[in-house]
Design goal:
heterodimer, A: mainly alpha, 8 helices, 0% strand, globular, B: 2 domains, elongated
């Protein structure tokens, strides 16, 4: 196994080939380059809660558990901001947390809920008409092709993370194809199958958000993190409540940002 | 008229202002505030815009004390979120737990009232939200005073004994006191 030496001032060409370029005068780039790691609170919880609430609300409505055809004009506003803006923002913070799955999937589903809110909003204003689910609506159905593709792909990546996150992405990703088929053909039973899968995904989204939030706030595992040993990154003890998994850098008597809460 | 004039305030103070605080909570490493304030900011933005749209005729909102299923359902999910964040807040602050748990209880009462069209439940929810608002005001006010004065002026209602004893120093902040804002604490020369 070759050594990777990014700081080889005796051999600038080798260092450059390892990913760093020296100045024209051969100066060591590390002498004026610094990497700062700034800790933040885990961003995924807000986005997962927004996804949970919006998805569960609309799925149960699609399953005719409550409401009527007149309900969407008073549903879309909170969905656009909670499932939309809040989830999108938590996805942007996930870039800062260097979370590949979170940044990709939370921003994508945030844009979906903002788009759905806009669609229902202009329908409420009478600009467009949204057909009932028994009538084919291919323009809406195609939304779920990229959503289903990218979400299922995210579930493959989540196999390295934890079971609850995998379940969120798998249920929702698979549900997208059923929803897509339902709206494409105008066959409500497929829409209902998709709504059920979304509902399961919403429950796992709440669990995943809650387990991350509680572990961070209490400084130890409260809800089991759903780790399959050897397959996933975390050790098996991440499934045992009370286990301390992280040791934050902090200045206990400092101001917010210099210490972790609690 | 109250319904027509209050949404604008809800959009910006309950919505934009609270959302900005939630975003800064990430930087302050406060996961509870990021989740709780972010969720309720989104709720305020959405419901305020919904009521703002009523006079345009695009949105119909039932009369007060009538059944209003969509809003009732939203309150149910906001209750789930609030109870979850309150359990997380309990790790550090029984005061924060109480404030968020009362918000959760108020949301449940509001959900029952709106799903059943019962004015009694709505009124109970209103009083519970007033209690939650009072607790939230106290925690916000105590945090501000304690940070500005450098001592515990009002108990912070946390598990740390020193944070509940009036007169206790909150410690020296990390700063270069004769420098610019951001390097020192605050904006005024000291």
């Amino acid at each position: 196994m070759a050594d990777l030496d990014l700081n080889d001032t005796r051999n600038p060409e080798r260092a450059a080939s390892n990913g760093l370029h020296h100045d024209r005068d051969g100066a060591d780039p590390w002498s004026h380059a610094r990497v700062y790691l700034t800790p933040i609170a885990p961003p995924a919880t807000l986005g997962l809660f927004g996804f949970f609430a919006s998805t569960a609300l609309v799925s149960t409505w699609l399953l005719h558990w409550w409401g009527s055809a007149a309900s969407p004009p008073t549903m879309f506003e909170v969905a656009a901001f909670f499932g939309g803006l809040a989830q999108f923002a938590s996805g942007l913070w996930s870039f800062r947390a260097r979370d590949y799955v979170g940044s990709a999937l939370l921003t994508m589903w945030g844009t979906y809920w903002m788009a759905w809110g806009l669609l229902e909003g202009i329908a409420a204003a009478g600009v467009i008409r949204i057909p009932p689910e028994s009538v084919a609506n291919t323009g809406f159905a195609v939304w779920f092709i990229p959503l289903g593709l990218f979400t299922l792909w995210g579930s493959v990546a989540a196999i390295r993370e934890n079971v609850p996150l995998f379940m969120v992405l798998f249920c929702v990703g698979a549900g997208c194809w059923a929803i897509c088929g339902g709206f494409w053909t105008g066959i409500p039973v497929w829409v209902h199958v998709g709504a059920w899968m979304f509902l399961f995904g919403a429950f796992f989204a709440w669990y995943t958000g809650a387990m991350i939030l509680l572990e961070y706030s209490w400084g130890r595992v409260i809800l089991p993190l759903g780790v399959l040993p050897r397959l996933m990154k975390l050790p098996a003890r991440a499934n045992v409540p009370g286990t301390v998994l992280s040791h934050p850098v902090e200045y206990l008597s400092g101001q917010p940002g210099t210490r972790r809460v609690p | 008229m109250a319904v027509q004039s209050s949404p604008s305030y809800g959009i910006f103070f309950g919505g934009v202002g609270q959302f900005a605080a939630a975003m800064w909570a990430y930087r302050a490493r406060d996961a509870v505030a990021a989740a709780f304030n972010g969720s309720w900011a989104a709720f305020w933005l959405g419901t305020s815009i919904m009521y703002l749209l009523v006079p345009t005729g695009a949105v119909f909102v039932p009369a007060r004390d009538a059944m209003f299923a969509p809003l009732g359902m939203w309150f149910m999910y906001m209750a789930a979120v609030s109870f979850t964040t309150s359990l997380a807040a309990l790790a550090r602050s029984p005061g924060g737990f109480a404030a968020q748990a009362v918000v959760g209880v108020a949301s449940v009462l509001a959900a029952i009232g709106l799903l059943s069209g019962s004015s009694g439940w709505d009124t109970a929810a209103g009083w519970a939200f007033v209690a939650a608002a009072a607790l939230s005001f106290y925690i916000g006010a105590a945090t501000m005073l304690d940070n500005v004065y450098g001592i515990i002026a009002l108990p912070l209602l946390t598990w740390r004994r020193g944070e509940n004893t009036v007169g206790t120093s909150t410690g020296e902040p990390i700063q270069f006191a004769d420098n610019d804002p951001g390097v020192k604490v605050g904006q005024q020369p000291r």
